[in-house]
Automatic annotation (TrEMBL):
Native source species: Polynucleobacter paneuropaeus
Originating gene: folP
Domain of life: Bacteria
UniProt-recorded name of the protein: Dihydropteroate synthase
Required cofactor names: Mg(2+)
Keyword Metal-binding: yes
């Protein structure tokens, strides 16, 4: 099992905490288990890199959410603004108009809900409506974001690493040591929040595949993913349909199912606690086989 692997390098931050036995996520308390939690992606956007426009209407979004729930999804991650490379930001009101009707319809669906946003006001509205988790590509660095989640002491948090911003992140990304630098950033963000009173058992980390990383950087992070799991927090792997898989297979985003599942299994084998995916049913089937073999 991945958690019994020999550690190749000591953790990179002396202020780390021991990984909590559970991950607190709003109304849900996720206990450790062999199979990673599956976070299903629900983009209510017209321009996301893989499924833009497919679930833009509330009716289509809810139908897709129902399919994910029937397939056994653990968390539904609802996003109203594309963060693909080069994406332009949208207004607060436009984001709220896209996500709030979906959140309000799903809040009692029986699985955890996550809001994929970096805007403090969107976080505030979503949490007030009953969302269980905030998934922030900026790692709660935008104005007011950390204060909002501090005011909701039960919600889960996913802190992601991104070099620069969505408009410029893929302009020649550079690292001296991608594992060390991403790990240091994630630990710094976690420690800032803990020092502000956020409970450590609410925090999960995301190294940010494809967010300011080259193909080589992404492959290094996947091959050494277990090093992120040594930082003391649950770690999320978000690799589904990413361009790194397209570069390796030559396939467009809607043809990357096999590659996505292969990457998820490799991340799970290296200790991923959460996997964020488009193809929930197929991913869960693959993880069931992986878990049975373990």
């Amino acid at each position: 099992m991945a958690q019994h692997r020999e550690v190749r390098q000591q953790p990179l931050n002396s202020e780390q905490v021991v990984q909590p036995a559970t991950w607190r996520c709003g109304r849900f308390l996720f206990e450790p288990r062999k199979r990673p939690l599956v976070m299903g992606i629900l983009n209510t956007t017209p321009d996301s890199f893989s499924d833009g426009g497919l679930f833009q209407s509330a009716k289509a979004a809810l139908a897709h959410a129902e399919q994910m729930i029937e397939s056994g999804v653990d968390i539904i991650d609802i996003g109203g603004e594309s963060t693909r490379p080069g994406a332009e930001p949208i207004s607060l009101q436009e984001e709220l108009d896209r996500v709030m009707p979906v959140i309000e319809s799903l809040v009692n669906c029986g699985v955890a809900l996550s809001i994929d946003t970096y805007k403090a006001e969107t976080m505030k509205a979503a949490l007030a409506a009953g969302v269980d988790c905030v998934n922030d590509i900026w790692g709660l660095r935008q104005a007011g974001a950390a204060q909002v989640v501090s005011n909701h002491p039960e919600c889960g948090l996913v802190l992601m690493h991104m070099q620069r911003d969505p408009q410029t992140m893929q302009f020649d990304p550079h690292y001296e040591d991608v594992i060390a630098q991403v790990s240091t950033f994630l630990m710094e963000r976690a420690n800032v929040l803990i020092h502000q009173g956020v409970s450590a058992d609410r925090i999960a980390l995301d190294p940010g595949f494809g967010f300011g990383k080259s193909l080589e950087h992404n492959l290094t992070m996947l091959s050494q993913f277990e090093r992120f799991t040594q930082l003391g927090f649950p770690v999320l792997a978000g690799i589904s349909r990413k361009s790194m898989l397209g570069k390796l297979t030559g396939r467009e985003s809607d043809g990357r199912l096999a590659a996505s599942i292969a990457a998820v299994i490799m991340a799970a084998d290296r200790g991923a606690r959460i996997v964020r995916v488009h193809d929930v049913a197929d991913t869960i089937d693959a993880l069931k086989i992986w878990e049975a073999v373990l």
